[in-house]
Amino acid sequence: MSLRRWLLAAVLMTPAMAVAGPLPTAPETGFPPLGALGGNTAPWTIVLLLTVLTLLPALLLSMTPFVRLLIVFHFLRQALGTQTTPTNQTLIGLALVLTFFLMQPVGVAIQQKALVPLEAGQITPMAALQLAVHPMKDFMLHFVRQKDVALFLDLAQEPHPRTPQDLSMRVVLPAYMLSELKAGFQIGAVLFLPFLVIDMVVASITTSVGMMQLPPVVISTPLKLLLFVMVDGWNLLIGSLMRSFS
Question: Are 75 and 191 spatial neighbours (Cβ–Cβ below 8 Å)?
Answer without folding.
Answer: yes
